[in-house]
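[job 4471] stage=fold_predict status=RUNNING
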Amino acid sequence: MNTDMNSTGLVIDQEKETGVWPFLKYLGKLLIRDRLGMVGLIMFIIVVFSAVFAPWLSPYDPLKQHLRFAKDPPAWMEGGSIDHPLGTDNLGRDILSRIIYGTRVSLTVGFFGVLIASSLGIFIGLISGYVGGTADNIIMGGVNLILALPYLVFVVFIAAILGSSLINVILIFGLTDIPIFVRITRGEVIKMRESGFVESARSIGASDKRIIFRHILPNLIGPIITIATFEMSAMIFYEAGLGFLGLSVPPSIPSWGNMLAAGRKYLVIYPWIATFPGLAIIFTGLGMNLLGDWLRDVLDPKMRRIKK
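[job 4471] inference complete, writing structure tokens
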């Protein structure tokens, strides 16, 4: 079988047609061979499915209070009821329903935060790495200054000033995460700007714009997707931390961080109020990290090992 490698480092079978669908089939074949990657993908799909179909999956309104049923234990514990499989909180709200709706906050913060950070970070990193010189020194000076600050302290400080709001949380994580994408993009661009395919493009008179968007940018897809997966997982943890401190979304919005904060007072007596939101955070973070590990192995040709 004849194979070749394109400028992005992806192995292409010359005897088969190229395109999006064959590439997806190729990724699916690799995913089946990686059990942990498959587990991570399934876990991630479960979380996304819960967020999208929350109104149909939730047995109750996550905001409706039933003080008569407050602090009911899970169904398998003494005094529990199948009506509330995971029990209720201190205000009688169904914990399962609140966890399902909490996926919306976590995924919204993670997705849009990474979208903002990656979009601006890639643009700035491309300029810094390709142009170099004074522009590079100025940009990297600012990046290093931001990275020198304690991240959590920096985020908490900004959140305390801006106040509790979903949009504020997204902007905080999106803007404070830009330096990570700038550094990764700059490093990859510096390696590629002197590579053979870039030199060949220059030799035939290609403009800088064409070189950047046709030759360099496609090669950044692998590293960016990989780091974006890990950063999205990190943002979910950080959002829960801000919620625990009361600096994320308002208390009226069900989020895992808010649930942890409400349950910490009853951790010894009614542990299920805080335990299940914590398990939801662990489940989501583990799934995304397993998926990120698989993406790193697949999209980095140096780490990929395929049994023929």
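[job 4471] summary: The longest strand covers residues 3-5.
[job 4471] exit 0
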